[in-house]
Amino acid sequence: MNALSVRGLTKTYRNGVQALKGVDLDVEQGDFFALLGPNGAGKTTLIGIMTSLVNKTSGEARVFGHDIDRELEAAKACIGVVPQEINFNLFETPYTIVVNQAGFYGIPRPVARERAEKYLKQLQLWDKRNGISRGLSGGMKRRLMIARALMHEPRLLILDEPTAGVDIEIRRSMWDFLREINDRGTTIILTTHYLEEAETLCRNIAIINGGRIVERDNMSSLLRRLHVETFVLNLRDALTEAPELGAAYVVRLVDDHTLEVEVSKDDNLNDIFARLSTLGVEVLSMRNKVNRLEEIFIRLVEGRGTDDGRPALDTRAAAGAAR
Amino acid sequence: MNAVTTTAPLNLGAVRWTGFKTIVIREFGRIIRIWGQTIVPSAVTAVLYFAIFGSLIGRRVGAMGGFDYKQFIAPGLIMMSVITNSYGNVVASFFGAKFGKHIEELLVSPLPNWVIVGGYAAGGVVRGLLVGATVTVVSLLFTHLHIHHLGVVFAALLLTSVTFGLGGFLNALFAKNFDQVNWIPAFVLTPLTYFGGVFYSVDLLPDWARTLSYFNPILYMVNAFRYGFLGVSDVGVGTAFILMAGAAVVLFGAAVLLMDRGTGTRD
């Protein structure tokens, strides 16, 4: 069964903006799914329709088989949502917020209290449970919204940029927490502008742009379609000019200790290292110039595709344009 | 943690009842948390009314409707505090939730709109009753309150606070800023309350003004309530209850309909 199934979904706002232009999308039960797109692409509108914060113009949507037109209560009971903006009462305590939220989903108060302790502890907010929420840091507020969304133990958790403004350490711990939830069976749909986050966490991906799904694929197969990657090599000794590695490679000297090499997916890195070694160039470390998913994303949202509508994903030009 | 991965049948009745109770508990918590804004002002106002209109001016007014003036105005003052507080509670709480976006906590939940509207209206009733009880205690410091019919007192209190709670809900739905939250109480509710027979019997008015007063819904609420205490009323008590019940039903229906359409809450 699909956790989410959307057919022909459209949304036109009163001001005439067409946010969704016929979206078809399936998310399988148990998936960790990335929904990516630039600002204004339609991600939040799509999530808003699923959670009934936005009225759709046309189309169908089902959550675990429950049609949002005919079985809205059952559909909403399956969903936990962590919105982009802080939307809890800043004058209430974290404990009150999560216990009340459970009540809105019909969870009896004694059970809600137990769950509040569990989730506030897991998200490292237990010590703050009785303080006014306004005093929480940005990261704590985000974690509180995650705890709140989990109180009714939803089958589908929708996270709309959950780690925006969160420092790296807390972001990583949130990733571990989300992986654990997903491993235990909760389907997760994640939107984020941190593409490393999507690449690290998600198994499947859809990219939405201009109100349409422009890509829907398995994460690993999408990344394999990347034709060219740019690697940054840190060198032990200074160079005055870029070494000649042959016609297959585009090499640039960024500074005297840093080289950039564009490598096609048909080439292999051993050959590059062998050539550099022959030239007496020692490599201390190597990294991708930009995240691989970022390269693909930029290409897709720029709208450059092949004749059949599939994106070429040869990022030589696109990656350069993005830098 | 134990994520739910199986389809459990949703007991809609239990979900709705728990959700309703949670909204009321949350509203009660809010009323108590800011008691200095929600409870105390009405008590202070009642003391001032009794001291000035009751004790100082009232002495010269003499009897009204066959009762001591302080006794006559006490039910009206209690009802006035119930009206303003049940209305004020819902309009402030619901608009605050819209403004702070935490209304989304309810909108994404499986609670149907009629439960949400009912929960907020019940919050208004709770505040109305709490403040009404407080003003009653204040009244007892200044005058003796005879109860003619306890059932009428409670029924009038309940219907009035439900009606004005729902009125506050509608105001909050349409309000786009805090100014619009205050317009109705300042320019509609207060004049209607003062002309609703709180301080006088409509028998004192000239014919045209008395006729006009019968179009004021608050006149019926105040008089039904006064009847419960003193056994006298300027209007038919049965008519008053039919009007109050009708108003509550119409306002509830309107609030649910507007919520279903997403007016003021959803795009």
Proportion of residues in β-strands of chain A: 25-35%
Question: What's the CATH architecture of the largest domain in chain A?
Answer: 3-Layer(aba) Sandwich
In whole angstroms, the N-to-C terminal distance of chain A is 42 Å
> Number of domains in the coordinates of chain B?
1
The quaternary state of the protein chains shown equals heterodimer
Number of strands of chain B: 2
Query: Residue share in helices of chain B?
Result: over 70%
Report the count of strand segments of chain A: 14
Question: Can you give me a brief rundown of this structure?
Answer:
The complex is a heterodimer of chains A (323) and B (267). Chain A has 323 residues and is α/β, with parallel strands linked by helices. Helices cover 34% and strands 28% of the residues of chain A.
Description:
The complex is a heterodimer of chains A (323) and B (267). Chain A is of the alpha/beta class. Chain A folds into 2 domains: 2-220, 3-Layer(aba) Sandwich (Rossmann fold); 225-323, Alpha-L RNA-binding motif (Alpha-Beta Plaits, 2-Layer Sandwich). Chain A has helices at 43-50, 72-77, 94-104, 109-122, 138-150, 168-183, 195-201, 219-224, 269-278, 292-301, 315-322, and strands at 2-12, 18-28, 32-36, 58-63, 66-67, 79-82, 156-160, 187-191, 204-209, 212-218, 228-235, 250-255, 258-264, 283-288. In chain A, the strands form 3 sheets. A 6-stranded mixed sheet of chain A has the order 6-7-8-3-9-10, with helices on both faces. Chain A has a 4-stranded antiparallel sheet with strand order 2-1-4-5. In chain A, strand 4 (58-63) and strand 5 (66-67) form a beta hairpin. In chain A, helix 3 (94-104) packs across helix 4, helix 3 (94-104) runs parallel beside helix 5 and helix 10 (292-301) crosses helix 11 (315-322). Chain B has 11 helices and 2 strands; from the N terminus they run αααββαααααααα. Helix content of chain B is 75%, strand content 1%. Chain B has helices at residues 12-33, 35-38, 40-61, 69-99, 104-107, 113-142, 150-174, 178-194, 207-213, 217-230, 237-261, and strands at residues 63-64, 67-68. In chain B, a hairpin with a 2-residue loop joins strand 1 (63-64) and strand 2 (67-68). Chain B has 267 residues and is an all-alpha fold. Chain B starts with 11 loop residues before the first helix and ends in a 6-residue tail after the last helix. The chains are: A alpha/beta (323), B mainly alpha (267). Chain A binds chain B through residues 13-14, 30, 48, 51-55, 64, 72-74, 76-77, 79, 81, 83, 85-92, 96, 100-101, 103-108, 118-119, 122, 148, 150, 153-155, 180-181, 184-186, and chain B through 1-5, 7, 10-12, 14-16, 18-19, 21-23, 25-26, 29, 33, 97, 100-102, 104-112, 262, 266-267.
